[in-house]
Every structure is written in C-alpha cells, then in structure tokens.
Write the structure tokens for this entry.
Amino acid sequence: MPLELLPSLLFAILVVGYSPGPANLYSLACCLKFGRRKALKMWRGLFTGFVIDITVMVVLTHILGEIMGQYIVYLKYVGAAYILWLAWKMLRNIGNQKAEADTCTFTSGLLMQLTNAKMLLFELTVFSVYVIPYTEDLPESQQLLKLFMVAALLLLAGPGANMAWLYAGAYLRRFLSKYEKQVEIIMAILLVLCAVYLMLI
C-alpha cells in the first residue's frame, strides 16, 4: 500500500470502526449494566474473535483474493441472527443482575465478533482496495506480509473502537444508573436495528 493512501485508510478506520455497530453497542451495553470490570472480560472475547477473524480473512484473501467477497455476504444473516438473540436476551433479563452469567461473558464477546459481518466486510474491502492492487507483482511471502501489516492497523477499528465504547459506558454509567431499565430497552432496540440494517445491506 502506498504511503499516500494511509490517511484515507485511517479515516476509513475512524468512520467505520468508531460508528455504532453491533460490537460497539454491545460493549457499551455490557459496561452500562455490569460495570467496566465485567465488560472487560467480554471485551477479551471481542479481541480474541477479532484476531481470529482478521487472521482468517488475511489467509483467505491471500489464497482466494477478491473472489471470496461474494460468499462473505451470507455471513451477515448469521451475524444478524446472533445480534437479535442477544437483544432478546437483554430484553428478557431487564433488571435482572443475575443475567450476567450468560449476557456479558468472554464467549458472548467472542461470538459477537466472529459473526460481526460489519467488520468482516470492512476487512475484505480494505484488503481489496488498499493491499491487493499494490502487491500483485510481489512474491507471495511479501504479499502475505503486507496483508498482515494492514491487518494490524485494523485492530484500531475493531478492538480499539470496542474499548472506546466500553469506556464511554463506564463514564456514562454513573449518570444513567437511575434509568437502568430504560437504557437496557434502548440498547436492545439499537441492537435490533443493527441486525435489521445488517440484513438490508
């Protein structure tokens, strides 16, 4: 990737990574309901899921190139179904502090990220626009290295953005604790809207 493209890539990371999306909203919701410490356990799942996702995407992009893009879009339905399930669990457990065991865990964060079609499509787009066209003439090992270098930058868009939303939740928790039920309903509705949007794109 030419260095002159770096500002546009960083801008894309900022816009896509830090805008509301399933993992960001889930990070915020977990922190608002259970506090920073418990939400950080879930974030570790998000981080692990992102590392798995990005590694698989790099390898698939290296092997298959842009061909796989036509198949990745089907994952959005799986992701939307999981997001709807999380929203349903949030609504079902409104006001129930014991719901923590199955709504804000490492596993829930891992599954959220593994099914996060927003990030998978973004990763594929970044590799297709910023890496593949500029590495075609390089040896295969250098092509793979360039993909992993850009993948490292995408940590800012995935786990970095999730952490920012999580800490925003930690800050807002003090002010919104009086309205816990209303906030939980709003967060569940926002997750449902994310799922619907995901299915429509």
Q: What stands out?
A: The CA atoms of residues 176 and 183 lie 7 Å apart. DSSP finds eleven helices and no strands in the chain. The chain has a mean pLDDT of 80. The two ends are 28 Å apart (CA to CA).
